[in-house]
């Protein structure tokens, strides 16, 4: 392995070679502490190594702040976005999901992750002038059965949620005909779906959104704690496939993730300080995600007419083009809406 291509400088390059790390996979499958122990490098040096290795492994250059300022990163700074279907939440995300790379949506059970994913499956079917991509969605379920009743409820509420769209357009779209559902009970079936079914649908122009619900389910169930190295290798293979599909077909990828409890957050920069949970699957997965969002249930209830909803908060944990911020939201019959005045 020629580590000089990462352009990390002679000191870091020499330390990596002394540690006999043979490939980018070896770096990305190890924890930060293990890399520090093997190489003798500082924490900041290890972070620089991980970022460079992850970017090269994905075969695309890392995005810098200067590139974003100059508008050189077309995939992030172009006008092409997938709207969430709510202007308040779209404002938080600067227009919605960008079309290149993986967006992770993490949160506890009942936080509203699947609700938002289903909403995006409908939003993608609108034309570009209304925040869509004029195509369908592939929804891959790895743990629970697909919530078809909730999808139908969201479809019936589109005229209410999307008041910005002409009613004639909303009524003309056959939403349920363009949501393709796959069930992956194990990693083999997931690999088969991503290597055969998904490319076929994308190449035919039938879908422009991939949803995996959830990414943690299979990797948690098929590997024991001491199988972390093999699990991380499988994770990198999985994420590499997602990145390839996303960039080849200019398609947003949304991965729903579970969370684990955090007991000491003093050194954890990947979760908001206000949170007591962290997205599952650790650093190996975090390095494959371009945008990490966290959805939380708050200890408050909001009322509207004859409906009530537990208040939620959608937070940007990290993203190269978004401010680290959050927005209150509620789940209503017609879908997920941002809440401007939550006090």
UniProtKB/TrEMBL annotation:
The lineage of its organism: Eukaryota, Metazoa, Chordata, Craniata, Vertebrata. CDD domains: XRCC3. This is DNA repair protein XRCC3. Residues 78-259 form the RecA family profile domain. Belongs to the RecA family. RAD51 subfamily. Keywords: ATP-binding, DNA damage, DNA recombination, DNA repair, DNA-binding, Nucleotide-binding, Nucleus. GO terms for molecular function: ATP binding; ATP-dependent DNA damage sensor activity; four-way junction DNA binding. It comes from Parambassis ranga (Indian glassy fish). InterPro entries: DNA_recomb/repair_RecA-like, HHH_XRCC3_RAD51B, P-loop_NTPase, Rad51_C, RecA_ATP-bd, XRCC3-like_C.
């Amino acid at each position: 392995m020629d580590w000089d291509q990462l352009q990390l400088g002679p000191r870091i390059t020499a330390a990596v070679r002394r540690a006999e790390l043979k490939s980018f996979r070896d770096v990305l499958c190890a924890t930060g502490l293990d890399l520090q122990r093997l190489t003798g490098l500082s924490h900041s040096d290890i972070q620089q190594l991980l970022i460079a290795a992850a970017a090269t492994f994905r075969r695309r250059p890392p995005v810098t702040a200067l590139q974003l300022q100059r508008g050189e990163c077309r995939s992030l700074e172009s006008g092409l976005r997938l709207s969430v279907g709510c202007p308040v939440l779209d404002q938080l995300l600067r227009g919605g999901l960008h079309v290149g790379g993986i967006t992770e949506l993490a949160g506890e059970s009942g936080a509203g992750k699947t609700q938002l994913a289903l909403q995006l499956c409908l939003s993608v079917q609108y034309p570009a002038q209304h925040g869509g991509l004029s195509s369908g969605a592939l929804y891959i379920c790895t743990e629970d059965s697909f919530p078809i009743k909730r999808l139908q409820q969201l479809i019936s509420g589109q005229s209410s949620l999307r008041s910005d769209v002409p009613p004639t357009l909303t009524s003309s779209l056959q939403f349920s005909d363009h949501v393709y559902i796959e069930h992956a009970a194990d990693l083999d079936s997931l690999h088969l779906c991503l290597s055969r079914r998904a490319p076929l649908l994308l190449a035919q122009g039938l879908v422009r959104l991939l949803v995996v619900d959830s990414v943690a389910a299979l990797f948690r169930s098929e590997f024991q704690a001491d199988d972390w190295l093999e699990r991380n290798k499988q994770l990198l293979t999985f994420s590499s496939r997602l990145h390839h599909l996303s960039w080849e077909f200019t398609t947003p990828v949304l991965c729903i993730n579970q969370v684990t409890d955090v007991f000491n957050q003093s050194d954890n920069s990947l979760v908001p300080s206000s949170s007591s949970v962290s997205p599952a699957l650790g650093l190996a997965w975090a390095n494959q995600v371009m945008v990490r969002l966290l959805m939380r249930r708050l200890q408050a209830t909001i009322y509207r007419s004859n409906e009530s909803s537990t208040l939620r908060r959608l937070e940007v944990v990290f993203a190269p083009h978004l401010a680290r911020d959050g927005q209150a939201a509620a789940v209503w019959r017609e879908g997920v809406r941002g809440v401007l005045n939550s006090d």
